[in-house]
Every structure is written in C-alpha cells, then in structure tokens.
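Q: How do we represent a protein-ligand complex in a form that can be generated token by token?
A: Start from the inputs.
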Amino acid sequence: MTKNKVFIETYGCQMNLADTEVVLGILQKNGFDSAKNIDDADVILLNTCSIRDNAEQRIYGRLGNLKAKKWEKKNLVIGILGCMAERLRSDLIDEKKLVDLVVGPDEYRRLPEFIDNALGGEKGIGVKLSKTETYDDIIPYREDGLQAWISVMRGCDKFCSFCVVPFTRGRERSRGLDSILNEIKQLSTRGFREVTLLGQNVNSYLDGNNDFADLLSAAAKIDKSLRVRFTTSHPQDLSDKLLETIAANKNICNYIHLPVQSGSNRILELMNRTYSIEHYLNLIEKARKIIPGVSFSTDIISGFPSETFEDHLATLDVMQKVRFDGAYMFKYSPREGTKAFRLNDDVDEETKSKRLQEIISLQQSISNEINQETIGKEEEILVEGFSRKSNDFLAGRTDSNKVVVFPLIDGIEEGDYVNVKITGGTSATLFGEFISLTNKKEKSLTAIAV
Ligand code: 5AD
Ligand code: SF4
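Then emit the structure tokens for the protein with 5'-deoxyadenosine bound:
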C-alpha cells in the first residue's frame, strides 16, 4: 500500500519549526511519508502562529490560496496545527469549510488518527492543553544538516499582559535532561555542528534538581565542536550560575537573547514583565563582566496601550545604553484573551508606525557601529555554505551570531570552523578574509560520553 504523503508549512517562531519536526516524527512512525513538494501531498498542514494579528492574517491568506488545490484534488486534507488551532478552535472548521482538522500543540500524538478520519471525510478538532506533554520519547524527523532546534520545555507561565502564548501553548513544563542529552549525542554523531535549545523562557527549565545551567553545561560537554545556543531568556530569571556556565564553556555561544520590550518602568509594569529597567541594565552589566565579549539581542514592542512620547524616548534611551547587537521590533497588536486586551489600544496606528521606524533606524545605526568596531579583528566562524548572494563566497556565523561572508577557498566547506579577519561590514553582515582552518568537519563524529 502506498503511504499518504504529508507536507507541513511552518509559520512563526523556532518553537514551531521544532514542533514540525516532532509532528513529522510522529507521522513517520505511524505510516505516513513526508512530501518533498506541496503538489505531491495528500495532506497539507499549516503549523500556525498567533503572536500578532498580521501573522494570523498571513495564514488566512494562505488558506484562501489552498482552496484552489482542494478543488483540483478532492480528497486533499487540509489541517491547522499550532497556536491558531488552540486560539480559534472550531471557528476554523465552521467558517472556512476548507479546513478538515484543527490540532493544538499538545495533541500531536493524536494527529495520525485525525488524519485517517479526515481522509475518510470526517472533520476533527483536538485542542486540549496538557500540563505534562513534552513529546520526550518522540524522535523528531530531521534531514541531515548542520543546525538543529531542540525544544527543551513547552508553554509559559509568565503571563506578560500582551502575550497570547500562555493561552495557546499552556503551562510551563520541562523535558527530561537525559532525553535531551541523548538527542544531542545522536545529532553530534550524525555530523550536526550546532544545536539551539528552545523554550519560551528557558531559564525556568527544571528536571529534578537540574536547572537550565546544568542542562547547558552537560550539553556542551557532549561534543566540544558542537556549538550550543539557546533562546529565549527572561530578565527576571537569568541566573549568575547560567552566566558562569556560558563563560566556562567555549562551545556555549556568547550570545543572549534577552527581550526588554520597553524602556519605561511604567509600561513594563503594565506589561507584567516583573523587572525594572534598572534591574535589566544591571543584569547586562553583570553579564558583560562575567562573559567578556558577550553579545545581546532583544525584542521591543512599540505603541503598547497608554505609551507616551516620554515612554518611547525611554525605550530609545535603553537601546543606546545597552547597544544591542540586534533586535526584533514589533508594533503592539492586541490579542483577545490577554490582560492587555482590556486596556484601550490608544496609540494610533500612525504613531505606532512612526515610533517603530525610529526604533528600527536607531538599531540599524547601532548594529552598524558595532560591526564597524569589529573590523581588523579575528573571529572564528562555523561555515554554513555559500553566501546568499553568490556562489563565489562562503558564509558562516560567529559565536556571537553575526553573519560573516568571505571569498571561496579551496577545500573549505560547510561544517568547517575557520578563522577570518574582518575587513568590513554593514548593519546586517560582516565581510572577512580567510586566515586558517581551525576544525575540519569529519564525515561522522563519535560522541563523547557525558
Ligand atoms: N504585540 C506585539 N508584539 C508581541 N510580542 C508578543 N506578543 C505581542 C503582541 N501582542 C513580541 C514580544 C515577544 C516576541 C516573541 O513577540 O516582543 O518577546
Ligand atoms: Fe509571552 Fe512573556 Fe511568555 Fe515570552 S515570557 S512567551 S512574551 S508570556
């Protein structure tokens, strides 16, 4: 019997990318194949994001496009996974006749059953959230490659007042330490060179007595030539122990994503972020002392309810004080069900856009300055392949997550670590010259036991 083929389109954060691999792992174990091409698929699943309204609108647009495919292929199954499934539940099936199944982030084990039913013409909804589901025993499906996302915990208990995640992904729960380490060992043996440990708030990770610093430290010892990254950290929970663990392990990248959201204490309070700007700045200072050369990125929201021009200036001020290496910057988008939804969304669209533009411009000039300061320095990068623009150049990233492009060199290929001298840069990219090969990628690495 030929297997039914599934194609998954993933939207939103890295958590969703990791979930897509878990879903493919579940489906393959249950007799489905993954389709290389959307036109070969018997089942199309959209793994969706609800974080802002524009993310949801994009997915509604995509569903509209998929209508044509369903006309061409009557038995085609179309399903919604992820945060929108949880948020909109039956609406998606009722209003848009097109959708056959809606399955939320904690119900993926039941997906084979839902798909089988849908192939038989029966619609299905599974959107219960769980306090315990971590998919610990599922081996995510991954093509061979260099870089892998590993979800180490699920959900969020922070309840920032603007954020829909605690409602769409449920309560915080951590995966077992051993199963995470085993997954990393397998990836190392397959020749992967970088893993990113993922959670909405990784600093709350806890398995028995092991906290996130213990997990990171054990992960780093598996294979010294495997880079370990992690995201996202919350400023309330970033411990000294974690900072010291980063400093003590060369292959834990000196890069921390630490969302600040706003520079105004009044707005931070309304956002329920549970820290002050003074605390945040002290934390940055401390991290820079413990981890020399550490780089930071952040998330910033412009136009939160009641944000005044002074509040906005405070955000620009904190950006100048910290000098983030990079930032993800957004306009506030009211989300139903959140605490902030009850506040008046009173910063008009034009003001939100203008403030966002100022934030983006400032960040670009700071990133550009920081990049200019690296000219002349030597950096070790992990080569990831050809540069996006030309096959005459290779590209890789530094420990601090900056992209470096340099002219092609005979014998250097993806997966190699090389030293480059930085010769120039823009706000987004550094340019360099090859100096030396520091670590050649072997065909198959043998994992060192922890
Ligand atoms: N509006 C705008 N940005 C949001 N984020 C989360 N919720 C919202 C919202 N309602 C941003 C935050 C968070 C990042 C993942 O998305 O900055 O850190
Ligand atoms: Fe949302 Fe805040 Fe949790 Fe991040 S920490 S997922 S912003 S509630």
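Residues 102 and 130 are 16 Å apart (CA to CA). Confidence is low (pLDDT under 50) at residues 444-450.
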